[in-house]
Amino acid sequence: MGLGLYIHIPFCRQKCAYCDFYSLAGRRERMEDYRRALEAHLAEAAPQAAHFSVDTVYFGGGTPSFFGVENLAALLKGIKKKYPVSRDAEITLEANPDSVEPKSLKQLRRAGFNRLSLGMQSADNGQLAALGRPHTFEQTHLAVLSARRAGFENLSLDLMYGLPGQDMASWQDTVEQALALAPQHLSAYGLKVEPGTPLARQVEQGEALPDDDEQAAFYLWAVRHLEQAGFEQYEISNFARPGLASRHNLKYWLLEPYMGFGPGAHSDFGGHRYSYIRDLEGYIQGVLQGGRLVDEDDPIPDRERSSEYLMLGLRTAGGIDLNHYQREYRMRAAPIVARLEDFRAQGWAAEREGRWRLTPEGFLLSNQIIGQLLELQQPVTLESTLSALRAGEAEA
């Protein structure tokens, strides 16, 4: 079975105004000890992965490229030494356009990284500045050229809509500029105002953002335009050239096993979901000196897994198979089907060859739709089985 590894790099040059991820600006003086802690933690956990094939490795953050080529290459080398990494593994590095240069990209490619995800976000420098991004669009363009010359053939760009000062024309320009860079993958995320962030304070002080209707229009235009450009939408916010969907991210949505390392990292492994403390110093000390390391650790009962199947599966273009849902999790499909039929009448859901999925319009309402379906979950019982049989006989 395939296994994904996620390596969290919590360092970045500066915090963006909207960022709620666990990351720290600067802190270069802690990078060496953090690398030692990661290496020790990865080595300690390696025996648990002995019977798997590690087919994806993802370095996320923070800004992993800010961690430095030497540290990144050493970590990847250690992973390949300790873990059964498949020869065709997808090995992704997140990077900001200002934190990569031609020499470092060549070194990273030689070290084994084969997929690069750049945080472009916008082609408008004013919008980037409003977000607190540490780069310009021109730097994105140069980073893409450097990545291609270094041998990166699988390139992803992150885009954001709903930004301060953004209208439909500027959003369309951002998408067109991104397409001109010929990426293999695009992510398009709606800006979320997270409590406690600088952006939240800006909004409280009167910073205007596009409203819900405008954001919906941005999203639907992008979905249709990217399809015309040859991109397949495989998840609410993710689009790829055929065959180039992010294999690592698909693990999250398809309930495949992954192990995370670093402060705040999450895992789904061995029938448990667990996470590590969101504290750099606590993580380093917990690994190297002993101490509390795990923040939460919960077994996943079938009822919870069935909820995850609905919730995560309906985020994907592949959708859900309700026969599988009923057979695998012993949950009744009939109430879910009835509600999905209602959603189909509204243009929010579609069914093909036994699989239900949300339409682009349905994706915009996914939280409400999925919430309603979760409330309808019913376990298969002897009584419900007999009732279904009686209903079938009555119809006959």
Overview of the molecule:
This protein is α/β, with parallel strands linked by helices. 44% of the residues lie in helices and 22% in strands. It is built from 16 helices and 17 strands. It starts with a strand and ends with a helix.
Tell me the total number of β-strands.
Answer: 17
Widest β-sheet, arrangement of strands: 9-10-8-7-6-5-4-1-11
Gyration radius (Cα, Å) is: 22 Å
Please give the alpha-carbon distance between the first and last residues.
44 Å
User: What portion of the residues fall into strands of 2 or more residues?
Assistant: 15-25%
Briefly characterize the structure.
The protein has 396 residues and is an alpha/beta fold. The chain has helices spanning 31-45, 69-82, 102-111, 125-131, 137-150, 168-180, 198-204, 212-228, 247-253, 280-288, 302-313, 322-329, 334-345, 360-364, 366-375, 382-395, and strands spanning 2-9, 11-12, 24-25, 53-61, 85-95, 115-121, 154-161, 185-190, 232-235, 238-240, 258-261, 266-269, 272-276, 294-299, 320-321, 349-352, 355-358.
Tell me the layout of helices and strands.
Layout: E1 2-9, E2 11-12, E3 24-25, H1 31-45, E4 53-61, H2 69-82, E5 85-95, H3 102-111, E6 115-121, H4 125-131, H5 137-150, E7 154-161, H6 168-180, E8 185-190, H7 198-204, H8 212-228, E9 232-235, E10 238-240, H9 247-253, E11 258-261, E12 266-269, E13 272-276, H10 280-288, E14 294-299, H11 302-313, E15 320-321, H12 322-329, H13 334-345, E16 349-352, E17 355-358, H14 360-364, H15 366-375, H16 382-395
Parallel strand pairs: 1-4, 1-11, 2-3, 4-5, 5-6, 6-7, 7-8
Antiparallel strand pairs: 8-10, 9-10, 12-13, 13-14, 15-17, 16-17
